[in-house]
Write a structure and sequence with these properties.
Blueprint (H helix, E strand, L loop, with lengths): L1 E6 H14 L1 E8 L3 E7 L24 E10 L2 E6 L6 E6 L1 H14 L6 H8 L1 E6 L25 E6 L2 E6 L2 H9 L5 E4 L2 H15 L6 H10 L4 H7 L7 H5 L6 E9 L2 E8 L20 H20 L9 H5 L6 H9 L3
Helix pairs in contact: 6-11, 7-9
The chain binds iron/sulfur cluster (2 copies).
One iron/sulfur cluster (SF4) binds next to helix 10.
Length: 342
């Protein structure tokens, strides 16, 4: 079938033109060899030779700290100003797992009662994905039915093939974008489904973990109290790193910052259910007083609660929590162990 094809030497022009016309965010290599999504100002800022970023692009939609509104006390009363500085943007180079993570966050922030901040970021962002060619030993997106070569939720996908990239449009916005670059594209006659199938096969050979979240969920559905949670939670340090790097975790806190008596702002910042005082109430009661309840909650949220509530799992198998946990807590082992509970 005919496909649109971008040769590798035209990728540079494609990126140049994208940068000239839009605010572009992309994976970039930051000090300490950390791959993180930052604003790209020149083509060299963009890193496409990466498998999975250390920090997920969640922060472009749900920033780690964000001002919700600012306030001034005047003689007439309180003057409120809502943050309005959103700019439409293009994200270049996202992976399938991270796009799926947005579909996981959408029902939380952008459905019945949309959060205006998340909704604005989400609705005004065009997503260009890079289909995966490699999997890390910690990747297990296949567990959740994610197709790393056909990312659900992308506008445009670049699939590496031969001397360039097959360009696949996945939305009306993606088609409009592709049409802007029509002069850079050639038409090739290839069997796209066969190419994708080969890539899927290569990737599936690299996946180390093959776990069944449905079996683990069945155990969770029927057993809230299990000695297993005592055992597994003992080693957790409660550092919260797993939740900070997770593209689907979305706990937050709200605080007021008032450097002067009559002016200030209300902000939202990431919080973590792994912290001891996360659920502590004003009267002192804490429904999750020990690590056991907190660890159980995190994993039940990923595999059961989010699915029960929104019809989509709370994990996308990106493996970041496995890589970053200082005590090697591994969600794939937990899914396997729980699946074996009789
Ligand atoms: S729980 Fe771990 S593997 Fe799953 S999406 Fe979050 S960071 Fe990725
Ligand atoms: S990263 Fe590991 S040690 Fe830290 S809170 Fe998460 S599970 Fe516990």
């Amino acid at each position: 079938m005919p496909v649109k094809f971008l040769t590798a030497d035209k990728l540079q022009i494609f990126i140049d033109r994208l940068l000239a016309s839009s605010t572009v965010f992309s994976p970039s290599n930051q000090p300490g060899n950390v791959i993180r999504y930052t604003q790209a100002n020149k083509p060299e800022d963009i890193c496409i030779d990466y498998v999975n970023s250390d920090i997920s692009p969640k922060e472009l939609f749900f920033p780690q700290t964000e001002e919700l509104f600012s306030f001034d006390q005047t003689d007439e009363g309180i003057d409120l100003r809502v943050q309005t500085g959103y700019k439409p943007k293009v994200i270049f180079g996202m992976r399938a797992c991270d796009v799926k993570a947005l579909l996981t966050l959408d029902p939380v922030f952008n459905s019945q009662w949309p959060d205006p901040h998340y909704a604005k970021n989400r609705n005004e962002t065009i997503i260009i994905c890079l289909a995966c060619d490699k999997a890390l030993s910690t990747c297990f997106c296949n567990t959740f039915g994610i197709d790393p070569v056909a990312p659900e939720g992308a506008d445009l996908v670049l699939i590496s093939y031969g001397s360039g990239y097959i360009i696949e449009e996945c939305s009306y916005t993606g088609r409009e974008l592709r049409e802007l670059y029509q002069d850079l594209l050639t038409q090739e006659y290839v069997h796209l489904e066969k190419i994708k199938e080969e890539k899927r096969k290569q990737l599936s050979e690299q996946f180390v973990h093959h776990v069944s979240p449905s079996k683990a969920k069945e155990t969770m559905d029927n057993n809230f109290e299990l000695p297993y949670w005592d055992e597994i939670s003992r080693k957790c340090l409660g550092c919260g790193i797993c939740t900070y790097v997770c593209p689907t975790c979305h706990c937050f806190d709200i605080f007021d910052y008032a450097p002067e008596e009559t002016t200030g702002s209300r902000c939202r910042c990431w919080d973590s259910c792994m912290y001891g005082d996360f659920t502590k109430m004003a009267g002192g009661h804490n429904p999750r007083p020990t690590k056991k309840e907190r660890v159980r909650n995190r994993f039940m949220h990923k595999i059961k609660y989010h699915l029960d509530r929104y019809g989509i799992e709370g994990c996308v198998g990106c493996g970041r929590c496995i890589v970053k946990c200082p005590v090697n807590m591994d969600i794939t082992s937990i899914i396997t162990d729980l699946g074996e509970v009789k």
